[in-house]
Amino acid sequence: MTENSGYLTEEEKIYLLQLARRSITHFLKSRRRLQEEAKNPRLEQKQGAFVTLKVNGQLRGCIGYPLPYKPLYQTVIEMAVAAASEDYRFPPLTEAELDDLVIEISVLTLPRKVKKPEEVVVGRHGIIISKGINKGLLLPQVPLEYDWDLETFLNHGCLKAGLTVDEWKREVNIEVFEAQVFSEEEPS
Fold first, then answer.
1. Which fold has domain 112-177?
2. Considering the entire predicted model, what is its pTM?
3. What pLDDT shows up at residue 91?
4. Helix (H) and strand (E) counts for the chain?
5. Residues facing residue 102 across a β-bridge
6. Angle CA 130–134–135, to nearest 5
7. Which residue in 1, 102, 140, 171 has the fewest CB atoms around it within 10 Å?
């Protein structure tokens, strides 16, 4: 990760993962958002982030802010709850699933536009493909999880945007970003 405020420390990553879990647990039990203040200036900086939830290794929710709208710790609180309760692709998470839940957080750099698709580096870059009102985002770890090459990655970015599979070969906007990705399985 080369932009924004640099890498998070191990302590900061562990804090954010625990914060995400506390947020989800609190919401499932009370139906209210956790109110907590971070006492760390680094976590109070605005930064984009996504929270990904997996239950028994299967994707169960993934929602985030690609841009730095809010302080990082607030983004994690909100996106953890949103991934657990608002991802339209899945039913809301239940308390019974908490024991099998693994949380992953991706802290993003600012997106930057690329001039040509060949500038996208699979495994390093996440992509945002847009055309008109259509927009799709894929995190940098996605093509690695599915063993995609660049063309497959761009094809899926187009599909996520609601475009034809090979629309990236024509006039689309392609932005890239990097992410510091950490999970409860692999905090580092």
1. Dna Ligase; domain 1 (3.30.1490)
2. 0.91
3. 96
4. 4, 8
5. 54
6. 50
7. 171
